[in-house]
Amino acid sequence: MTHTPHRLEVIDISIGYGDKIVLRDVSFQIPHGARVAVVGPNGAGKSTLFKALVGLLPLKSGRILIHGLDLGIHQDCVAYVPQREEVDWKFPVTVTDVVMMGRYGKLGWLKRPSRADQAIVRESLTQLGIADLEKISIGDLSGGQQQRVFLARAIAQEPHILLMDEPFTGVDITTQEATLNLLDTLRDRSVTAIISTHDLNLAANRFDYILLLNKRVIAFGPPKEVMQQENLAGAFGNSLLVMENGAMLVDECCPPDEDHPHEEVQHD
Amino acid sequence: MIDWLLEPLTYGFMQRGLAASVMVGILCAVMGTYVVLRGMAFLGDAMAHAILPGIAIAYILDGSLLVGAIAAAVAVAVGIGFISRGGNLKEDTAIGILFAAALSLGVALISTMQTYAVDLSHILFGNVLGVSVSDLWLTAILGAGILLTVGLLYKQFLVISFDPVLAATLRLPAELLRYVMLLLLALTVVVSLQTVGVGLSSAMLVTPAATAYLLTRRLWPMMLASAVIGALSSVIGLYLSFYLNIVSGAAIVLTATTFFLVAFIWKRMKS
């Protein structure tokens, strides 16, 4: 039997803060270049999972393997695009400064960026359509532009795995399109992308796999298999409404910082 | 005018005082950019006070005050790093307890000395005119070491300050870098004790850097502007102190505050 090497293997991990465990016994395997949507209600542990994947939170148990080796052995293999609320926008850095930080992992400790690094930064900016903003302070950008800066930085990192926390929440259509286009480019370079989202339609239509979470793995697989009534009921509980025609509707609020509830419709 | 500028420099103690305050002004201003950007103002203040027992013990044992302060600073930097790591107490509470206890211990030790009042005022508010040549050398060597380290670790300090998550994905030893930064801050505070004292050293950390923050939009220009403002404040403050016969530390800090107010009003008018 042939064994396909997976880019990312998560084996029975439990993660939490202090004595409290947020996610329990999580296991899944993601092959080369796949695009995975992480879906679940607020507090399901999506951000916690991401923190564990970048190595910010120590594992209570289990292992995370990248190319068959433990997390941390492959330097700068993982790039993370933060939620906009996580960034200090008043920090005195320009767009170029932020994107150049993506190159720091490949630079030596005491080396300055080379011409090649600068070229990669410019290329990343151009790809996201923000090359003209290079000298602007990040605090002076619009929300969508801010997100694109961090996407450009993730590209400049030349990662094998890209993690994005809620990139489709509260951004304009242009940025949403830029993000989706970027995902297509990354697929060509066989970069694995793992993205948390509240948008069930998007997850069902534009992703290869869905990881349905609620404190544990409810379901993992291609959208058709995961988007079943019992799975969604297991993840969302009372906020799942099933219509007579078989359509399912999840009444799920956005993250706490955005107080407008929105609804997503998913047809069976 | 020239005479007015040159007259103080005919005194050796003024030359040494000027050299010391310019060096301290630059050092505090550069480290101050991290203090302002990382919200460590309270920590810087606490550190200055927590060094007091080290100075008192050195004084009682008739040793070098700077060496005593450096020993205390290293202990404090490690202590604060350790306490704020556990997570049982909020960081500012832990710092508050440590800092009040150290200040009390320092005052208690100093109060056993006969020349209590004079010594305490020098330690609290600095004695720039009492700087010796060997103090000056020690300041220069420590200062060069601090600036060199900041220069070499510029990228790493930028990442851990701006984006700790990126630091984690780049596998930077964030914890170690944080200790190094605390240590540099502690050494800066020690050096600043000669010119502005325990009571005012946090002002020299925060005020020039906050002024520069209003005027610039990138990290290294902010450091540069902060250093220029810190150095200018020191020179102007020392001349004011000479001619108006006021305490030098207070004159330096008030000059820096004036720079800040001008920048603040200018920024307000612009927007």
Task: Describe, in plain words, how this protein is organized in 3D.
The complex is a heterodimer of chains A (268) and B (271). Chain A is of the alpha/beta class and 268 residues long. Chain A has helices spanning 46-54, 95-101, 115-127, 143-156, 173-188, 200-206, 223-226, 229-236; strands at residues 8-17, 20-30, 35-39, 61-66, 69-70, 78-81, 161-165, 192-196, 209-213, 217-221, 240-242, 248-252, 262-266. Chain A is built from 8 helices and 13 strands. In chain A, the strands form 3 sheets. A 6-stranded mixed sheet of chain A has the order 6-7-8-3-9-10, with helices on both faces. Chain A has a 4-stranded antiparallel sheet with strand order 2-1-4-5, covered by helices on one side. Chain A has a 3-stranded antiparallel sheet with strand order 11-12-13, with helices on one face. Residues 254-268 of chain A have low confidence and may be disordered. Chain B is globular, with a radius of gyration of 18 Å. With 271 residues, chain B is mainly α. Chain B has one domain (14-264): ABC transporter involved in vitamin B12 uptake, BtuC, CATH 1.10.3470. Chain B is 83% helix and 0% strand.
